Amino acid sequence: MNGLRKRRGYTAAAAAGAGLVLVLTACSGSDDDGGSGDGASSTTDCTAYEDYGDLSGKTISVYTSIVDPESQQQIDSYAPFEECTGATIEYEGSREFEAQLPVRLQAGNPPDIAYIPQPGFLKSIVEQYPEVVVPAPQAVIDNANEYYTEGWVNYGTVDGTLYATPLGANVKSFVWYSPSAFEENGYEIPTTWDDLIALTDQIREDYPDVQPWCAGIESGDATGWPATDWLEDVVLRTAGADVYDQWVNHEIPFNDPQILEALGTVGSILKDSERVNGGWGDVTSIATTPWNEAAQPIPDGACFLHRAANFYQANWDESLTVAEDGDVYAFYLPGATEDDKPLLGGGEFVTAFADRPEVAAFQAYLSSPEWANKKAEVTGQGWLSANNGLDPELLQSPIDKLSFDLLTDDSYTFRFDGSDQMPGAVGADAFWKQMTAWIAEDQSDEETLDNIEAAWPQ
């Protein structure tokens, strides 16, 4: 459950039921039928949909890990496509998606479209079921090249062939803080890693009884994943993007000296009792603090800094304002220098398993600005896309707008979540477990990395 946990963990408590199967009926476009949810409208401008043709009577099945409550937002975002083409989208969301998709492919029962949450998983599917996965049609290739950066296109490409385009996206390189606390104390947003450490020490000096950082890596069966994000972010900052790629692809061992240095840098915060775990306890409390609650001491001044993705915003109390001048906000986790701008993130990828015109049309729609803008329109906070045709004014929270700006800014070097690209035995098992032992048992840096390296499939 690697990418699902890391991307969608905050929805697990709110989601109900083991799965979701919802069927959308094509909109008639009549004045007395508003269609499905908030998505459909009898006044939809269908000009941008004319190239898809008349798909009346056609049904496209979608299989995904996105379940209630986020599933309804997905469903609402399909309404213009249905209304303008006459097609019907049959939606199925499952928490067992990653286990069940290969089963369905092997049984000869593939969905028409699946949303695959990790490039590593996509690659394994292409390698194991090459006769089932359908390469992207030309319209999708054109959209990919026009609306996404080369990096995003590459994550959907296997052996030189584009199979999948991005759906949603997230940015993980953020530090959450209290704007009012910074203003009251005269703290400035750090623009380099050294500035960040200097700020950490200044907070400790100003508040001797407070550890500046708060952290939590508890996440049920996926406990440990937030610590993997920490290491990935720091590898990008201490070793650089090229070394990061070599590490993720196992072109250098997991326990390479450059990775050992990065883990030591992470430990300079997460294993320093003077710097962590504000509001919760000692260093070992990080292992038992729920990841989605870890930053809660910030508004009360029990800690000042918490590294977490843009989607952490869903975990703040509804009474708090998430904004640059609000109760809580986030700043970019700085690089080694002001010109060094690595960016860690993740997302899902639209993949086809049926070579039919209506499936190609829907896949093209999902890679278009029309879909991205409709999805933003029907979604609250916590969602964005790397599609540069997205109108940022439709994004409904300041942190989402900031995330979009970073994702579409060529001066930032984007890399996809490392563990989501690694084999499951490493990325979704050993990496999580060993980072947990590193915190909970004070396991050494060397032993932690050696154990993860030993888990890499031979």
Structural account:
The protein is α/β, with parallel strands linked by helices. The chain has 17 helices and 12 strands. Strands 1, 2, 3, 4, 7, 11 and 12 form a 7-stranded mixed beta sheet that branches. Helix 2 crosses helix 14 (369-378). The longest helix has 17 residues, at 424-440. The protein is globular, with a radius of gyration of 22 Å. 52% of the residues are buried. Mean pLDDT is 90; it is low at 1-38.
| SS elements, strand count | 12
Q: What's the alpha carbon Rg, rounded to whole Å?
A: 22 Å
Kindly, what is the distance between the CA atoms of the first and last residues, rounded to a whole number of angstroms? 22 Å
Indicate the percent of residues in helices.
25-40%
Sheet-strand content, in percent, reads 5-15%
SSE pattern, N- to C-terminal: HEEHHEHEHHHEEEEHHHHHEEEHHHEHH
Q: Report the principal-axis shape.
A: globular
**Major beta-sheet overview:** 7 strands, mixed
> Please, how many helices?
17
Uncertain stretches of 5 or more adjacent residues: 1-38
Q: Round the mean pLDDT to the nearest integer and report it.
A: 90
Which secondary-structure class do the elements indicate? Answer: alpha/beta
